[in-house]
Amino acid sequence: MTLSHRITTLTPDGDDGWGLFYRSRQMIAAGEPVTELTIGEHDIRTDASILEAMHRAAAGGHTGYASVPGTPALRQAVADRISQRTGVATTPDNVLITPGGQAGLFAAHMAVLNPGDTAGYIDPYYTTYPGTLRGAGAVPLPITTRAAQNFQPQAEDLRALKGAASLLVNSPNNPTGVIYDAATMGAIAAAAQEHDLWLISDEVYDTQVWEGAHISPRALPGMASRTLVVGSMSKSHAMTGSRIGWVVGPTEAIAHMTNLATHTTYGVPGYIQDAAVFALGEGEALEEKIAAPFRRRRAIAAKALAGQNVVRALPAMGAMYLMLDIRATGLSGAEFGERLLDTHRIAVMPGESFGTSAAGHIRVAMTTDDAAFEAALHTLVAFAQGLA
Fold first, then answer.
1. What's this model's pTM, rounded to 2 decimal places?
2. Which CATH superfamily is domain 5-45+285-387 in?
3. Which of 2, 35, 289, 340 lies at 20 to 30 Å from 117 by C-alpha?
4. Residue 28, SS3?
């Protein structure tokens, strides 16, 4: 018996480039002390007030099947949030609630791609992107960017999209921490219209903006009818394990994705949706509370990296990550990461895990307490200087 080609080719390299992360987790499980700066998991848990709302809803009986496209209350809350933040009129019929942003990404691509279609995405990229596209039956097309241009895709880069059916973008960006500026978003919108593409915009970090402004491409002229926006409570409200997200887009697309959800996820538990309604109702104050540690650690990192040029940080404009250029050491990101883990028990993600454009870089997640984070950065710099 053989497994399907679709499932066996999701990650051709076998581990999606996460081998170092898996090794660090094995070390931790074996009792070794490791400072983990790998994945985007908050070092604080979901706020107690959200958990209390979730408990009230579950204890109150909202534990049966919930409406597949989402409860009316949560769809309205998300629509209101999107309307307020982007200025684009959004109704509940424009919203599908999904089990996290990842499920939203898959549903969006299933909605707009036929088997064999070419689907573009920006390199560097979040590691699940190529596998998501393959799972939807598409041929992934990376659009390479350059560190010298802060990984902002250029108009000439986007010409490679000719013949593609979709483009996936992510701003604020994981892994680079870059926020696409108005010129970049304008070029992306122009390419989408020129090549008649669906644009899928992953905006799960929209509450983590340290410099500049987040621009949702759905708000640009002519883009609402061809854009699907994926959002999530994971990063904005530290609800990673609750698996609660959404897709916002044209009503026809949302109706068809609701049909897809009926045949796949069959919705999200009602008590989790009720907790999400509560969390969104707390407004920006709670979101700023969740984002505050990363804003603070960004400043800590700037001080720790000052006064040397062996480890260079790209402008960390948003999200919970730093992208560090370690090419002066002569090592690849993977080699640097392996040696750093072996010698100092500090785990980072190699840039190569996120595509070819980030080779010679490492991604550092700002997801441990301030003191440990600062100490790890000083050790990392000293280690790099010794290599250089």
1. 0.96
2. Aspartate Aminotransferase, domain 1 (3.90.1150.10)
3. 2
4. helix
